[in-house]
Design a protein that fits this description.
Radius of gyration: 22 Å
CATH class of the largest domain: Alpha Beta
Number of domains: 2
Helix content: 25-40%
CATH topology of the largest domain: UDP-n-acetylglucosamine1-carboxyvinyl-transferase, Chain
CATH superfamily of the largest domain: Enolpyruvate transferase domain
CATH architecture of the largest domain: Alpha-beta prism
C-alpha cells in the first residue's frame, strides 16, 4: 500500500495551478445520463472519485472517451442505458446516489445501491427520496438498494427541503429538468458547484432560473442538445493551498481560480495575519511569522467550508493563542485530531467543537489518513513538522486531490510516495 513520506520544515515558494473541481464534476457526470446527445467536458480532474463515477456510468452503458489534452471527456448515453447502479462502485463514493434523479427522469425507473464514501458523519438519503416521492416516485429500500419508479414520469411541483442539502439539491435539480411542467425548489444548497451544475444543465438545453438566494425554478423540457462545457476550478484544493501558503511564512501564487468564490476563506486568512493579493484568476498569499488566533464555525456556503475545517485546524495549531472550530455540518469530522496529536498538536474536542491551544511545534511521526480532507491536513502538518512524517492510507487523498504531492514538490516541499 502506498504511503507519503514528508520531510519538514519546508518553505514553499512558487505557483500552483488548481485542477478542475471534483465536487462539480461528479453531479455533472451523473447529469449526462439525461441526454442521448454527445457531451464534451473539459477541466475534469483525474482523481479517484471521478474515475469511479466514470466507471459507474460505463457499467450502465455510457460511452466515455478520455483525452489527455485539457483533461477532457466525450460522453454519449444512448437509449440502452441500464438503470441499475451496483454496490461495488457505489460503496466507495457518496456522490453515486446522484444518478438516481436522471435515471428516474429519463427512464422512469432505477435500482441504485445506497452510497458509501468518507465516514465523516451520518448523511441520509431520505431528503432525496422524499423530494422525489412528491414528484410521483414510488420507492422501497430492499437489501441495500433503492428500488424506485415513476410510471407516469416525474411531475413538476413545489418542494421545500427541510434542511440545506447539497446532494438532495443536485439530485432534484437534475431530475426536474425532464419533469412535466414547472418545479420550484426552495431552501436549496447554493454551493458554487451547484451553480456550475445549473450552468451545465442550461448549456445542454434545460430551463433553470434562480429566483431567490436559495430558490430555483425549473421548467421541464423534452430534449437536450450537444454541448461543450468546462468544469469550474476546485475551490477546496484552492483553499487547501491557500492555507498551506499561510503556514511557515510561505509565498504562493494560486492560479486558475475565481477569488470571489473563496471570499469567506480569504477574509479568515487575512484576519489571522496572512498577506493576500487578489487578481482576476489568481491569488497571491504570503504567510507571516505571527499567526493570530480566531474562532470559526463551518456552515453551508457562503459560510466557511466543512471540507477545509481539518486543514484550517493545522494552521490554528500554529496560532499565538487559543482558537476554536465549531463543526456544524458533520458530527464525525474531527477524526484527524488524534493523528495531529501524534504530531504534538494540543487539541481538545468538546462535542462538535475543537479547542486548539496554539503555539504547536509539530514533530514528524507515523500517522494514518482517516478521510479525504484529513489526509490533506496531515500533509500540511508534516510540511511544518521537525523531522520525517509517514502518512499511510493515502488512497483517501487520491479520491479528491489531483497530483497534490507533485504540485507541492514543485514549490519546495520534500514529499514523495513510497511503498
Amino acid at each position: 500500500m502506498k504511503k507519503l513520506e514528508v520531510f519538514g520544515v519546508s518553505k514553499l515558494n512558487g505557483q500552483i495551478k488548481i485542477s478542475g473541481s471534483k465536487n462539480a464534476s461528479l453531479p455533472i457526470l451523473a447529469a449526462t445520463l439525461l441526454s442521448g446527445k454527445k457531451i464534451s467536458l473539459t477541466n475534469v480532474p483525474r482523481v479517484k472519485d471521478v474515475e469511479t463515477m466514470i466507471k459507474l456510468l460505463e457499467s450502465m452503458g455510457s460511452k466515455v472517451k478520455k483525452f489527455q489534452k485539457g483533461n477532457s471527456l466525450l460522453i454519449q448515453n444512448n437509449k440502452k442505458i441500464k438503470t441499475k447502479a451496483g454496490y461495488n462502485l457505489m460503496s466507495t463514493m457518496r456522490a453515486g446516489i446522484i444518478v438516481l434523479g436522471p435515471l428516474l427522469a429519463r427512464f422512469g425507473k432505477a435500482k441504485v445501491s445506497t452510497p458509501g464514501g468518507c465516514s465523516i458523519g451520518f448523511r441520509p438519503i431520505d431528503l432525496h427520496l422524499e423530494a422525489l416521492k412528491s414528484m410521483g416516485v414510488n420507492y422501497k429500500i430492499i437489501n441495500g438498494y433503492v428500488h424506485a419508479s415513476a410510471k407516469n414520469g416525474l411531475i413538476g411541483t413545489k418542494i421545500k427541503f427541510p434542511k440545506v442539502s447539497v446532494g438532495a439539491t443536485e439530485n432534484l435539480l437534475i431530475a426536474s429538468c425532464l419533469a412535466k411542467g414547472q418545479t420550484i425548489l426552495s431552501n436549496c444548497a447554493i454551493e458554487p458547484e451547484i451553480k456550475d451544475l445549473t450552468k451545465f444543465l442550461n448549456t445542454i438545453g434545460a430551463k433553470i432560473t434562480w429566483t431567490g438566494k436559495r430558490q430555483v425554478k425549473i421548467i421541464g423540457v423534452k430534449k437536450f442538445k450537444e454541448a461543450n462545457f468546462k468544469i469550474m476550478f476546485d475551490r477546496i484544493e484552492a483553499g487547501t493551498m491557500l492555507i498551506a501558503g499561510a503556514i511557515n511564512q510561505n509565498n504562493l501564487r494560486i492560479k486558475s481560480v475565481d477569488p470571489t468564490i473563496l471570499k469567506t476563506e480569504i477574509n479568515i486568512l487575512k484576519k489571522i495575519g496572512a498577506k493576500i493579493i487578489q487578481r482576476k484568476s489568481e491569488i497571491i498569499i504570503q504567510g507571516r511569522k505571527k499567526i493570530k488566533n480566531i474562532n470559526i464555525k463551518t456552515s453551508p456556503f457562503p459560510g466557511f467550508a466543512t471540507d477545509l475545517q481539518a486543514q484550517m485546524m493545522v494552521l490554528l495549531c500554529k496560532a499565538n493563542k487559543k482558537s476554536s472550530i465549531k463543526e456544524d455540518i458533520f458530527e464525525n469530522r474531527f477524526q484527524s485530531v488524534s493523528e495531529l496529536r501524534r504530531m504534538n498538536a494540543a487539541i481538545e474536542v468538546r462535542g462538535n467543537k475543537a479547542i486548539i491551544k496554539g503555539n504547536t511545534i509539530f514533530k514528524g511521526a507515523q500517522v494514518m489518513a482517516t478521510d479525504l480532507r484529513a489526509s490533506a491536513s496531515l500533509i500540511l502538518a508534516a510540511l511544518c513538522a521537525k523531522g520525517k512524517t509517514i502518512i499511510s492510507r493515502i488512497y483517501h487523498l487520491d479520491r479528491g486531490y489531483e497530483d497534490i504531492e507533485k504540485k507541492l514538490k514543485k514549490v519546495g516541499a520534500k514529499i514523495r510516495r513510497i511503498d
